[in-house]
Amino acid sequence: MQQPLVGIIMGSDSDLPIMQEAANVLQSFGIAYELTVVSAHRTPTRMMQYAQSARSRGLKVIIAGAGGAAHLPGMVASLTPLPVIGVPVKSSNSIDGWDSILSILQMPNGIPVATVALNAAKNAGILAASIIGSFNAAIGDKVEVYKHDMENAVLGKVEHLRQQGHPNGFDQ
């Protein structure tokens, strides 16, 4: 088993359908990860132990997803020197997700949390891969290929529209 480089944590297993997207992206880049439930409110001691041991256990990035009051990403960021990526999750008790977004986004100076869009764990996985790719050339190359493939997919759609006869003065 490879040493995990990314920790994916969530406040509840009900967040797993969202957070699985981060795991899927990391798998596609060949980045080892660990995934578990760590609740800021229900298991504060576990949260502290997880955050404080993450670096010494070899993690390089933590992706933390939470809904509602969403304290997990910020509290973890306050306890570790590692970059933390927060994923606001629209939960059953959420106010259209804004409570989660603002709880993660509005961190005080000195405790940064990179915050992705609501339920955007896929973007959190891509950002984690980009961070790791900044010091791991093989992963950096995979991120470059991923972005190049996205560009080619869009250009393919442009060509498809052109072939359907849609006017486009830009691509003359």
Outline of the structure:
The protein is of the alpha/beta class and 172 residues long. It has helices at residues 16-29, 44-53, 72-79, 98-105, 121-133, 137-163; strands at 6-10, 33-37, 61-67, 84-89, 114-115. The chain contains six helices and five strands, in the order βαβαβαβαβαα.
Question: Topology of this protein?
Answer:
Layout: E1 6-10, H1 16-29, E2 33-37, H2 44-53, E3 61-67, H3 72-79, E4 84-89, H4 98-105, E5 114-115, H5 121-133, H6 137-163
Parallel strand pairs: 1-2, 1-3, 3-4, 4-5
Helix pairs in contact: 1-5, 2-3, 5-6
Question: What can you see in these coordinates?
Answer:
- The protein is an alpha/beta fold.
- Helix content is 47%, strand content 15%.
- It has 6 helices and 5 strands, in the order E-H-E-H-E-H-E-H-E-H-H.
- The chain has helices at 16-29, 44-53, 72-79, 98-105, 121-133, 137-163, and strands at residues 6-10, 33-37, 61-67, 84-89, 114-115.
- The chain has a 5-stranded parallel beta sheet, sandwiched between helices.
- Helix 2 packs across helix 3.
- The longest helix is centred in the C-terminal third of the chain and has 27 residues, at 137-163.
- The model has no long low-confidence stretch (mean pLDDT 96).
